[in-house]
């Protein structure tokens, strides 16, 4: 299994070297603290790597490995730093921000759509959102290699940084007054926030948004897949921009 590093020594060395992009570290709740485990937690915290104490059942899929109760889940890509991303110049560009998308197939499909639509980058949180793994990579059909994926510890802080750099924030919410096609996406850098099907975009991000839009539904069955919903919105931005060029 090439998407994990297992065992205290191996995980500790990966943290020290910094050569591997770690999504998350799983630590067994039954594991007793010692110097190595404390060092793993210390370095993880220092490097912004999430570590989580989990029940032993979580390790069943790794039973054949001598994991010693410690497993690091590895990303197949190198994440982009938000400050590095914002250090470049953008004109009429688009970003996608994902708030609570948990299905790796959805993330893979979203990445594929974003690359096809010329989106400049995708922002995901380090917690409560699926990170880039082998399933995401496969579902994206290679698109993951053609777009920056930015992992942040706080979406609120990330959105505030974007606003300070003159990005317009557009959140999606089923109860919004405006439909997604009523917004003029031309002549601005825009970041579109998509939430999970079951929870939607968080209230803290809705408050920071410049626009809140919805996709109108013909009946009460309001359960459009998040990747399909994004496709509708992102290609509306392309339609508007292409029409604007022709004028």
List the helices and strands and how they pair.
Elements: E1 4-6, H1 8-17, E2 22-28, H2 35-46, E3 50-54, E4 70-74, H3 82-86, E5 94-99, H4 104-116, E6 121-125, H5 134-139, E7 149-152, H6 155-164, E8 167-172, E9 178-179, E10 189-195, H7 203-208, E11 211-214, H8 226-246
Parallel strand pairs: 2-3, 5-6, 5-10, 6-7, 8-10, 8-11, 9-11
Antiparallel strand pairs: 1-4, 2-4
Strand arrangement, largest sheet? 7-6-5-10-8-11-9
Question: What overall form do the CA principal axes indicate?
Answer: elongated
Instruction: Classify the beta-strand content into a percent band.
Output: 15-25%
Total of helices: 8
Q: What's the helix-strand series?
A: EHEHEEHEHEHEHEEEHEH
Question: CATH superfamily of the largest domain, called what?
Answer: SPOUT methyltransferase, trefoil knot domain
């Amino acid at each position: 299994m090439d998407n994990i590093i297992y065992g205290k020594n191996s995980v500790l060395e990966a943290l020290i070297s910094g050569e591997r992009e770690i999504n998350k570290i799983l630590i067994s709740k039954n594991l007793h603290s010692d110097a190595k485990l404390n060092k793993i937690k210390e370095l993880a915290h220092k490097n912004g790597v999430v570590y989580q104490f989990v029940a032993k059942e979580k390790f069943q899929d790794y039973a054949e490995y001598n994991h010693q109760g410690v497993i690091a889940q590895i990303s197949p890509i190198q994440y982009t730093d938000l400050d590095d991303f914002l250090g470049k110049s953008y004109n009429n560009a688009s970003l996608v921000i994902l708030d609570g998308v948990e299905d790796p197939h959805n993330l893979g499909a979203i990445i594929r759509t974003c690359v096809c639509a010329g989106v400049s980058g995708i922002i995901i949180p380090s917690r409560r959102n699926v990170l880039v793994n082998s399933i995401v990579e496969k579902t994206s059909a290679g698109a993951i290699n053609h777009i920056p994926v930015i992992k942040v510890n706080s979406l609120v802080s990330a959105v505030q940084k974007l606003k300070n750099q003159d990005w317009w924030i557009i959140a999606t919410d089923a109860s919004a007054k405006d439909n997604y096609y009523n917004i003029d996406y031309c002549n601005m850098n825009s970041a579109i926030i998509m939430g999970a099907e079951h929870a939607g975009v968080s209230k803290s991000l809705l408050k920071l948004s410049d626009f809140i839009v919805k996709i109108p539904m013909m009946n009460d069955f309001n359960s459009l897949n998040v990747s399909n919903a994004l496709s509708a919105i992102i290609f509306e931005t392309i339609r508007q921009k292409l029409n604007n060029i022709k004028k």
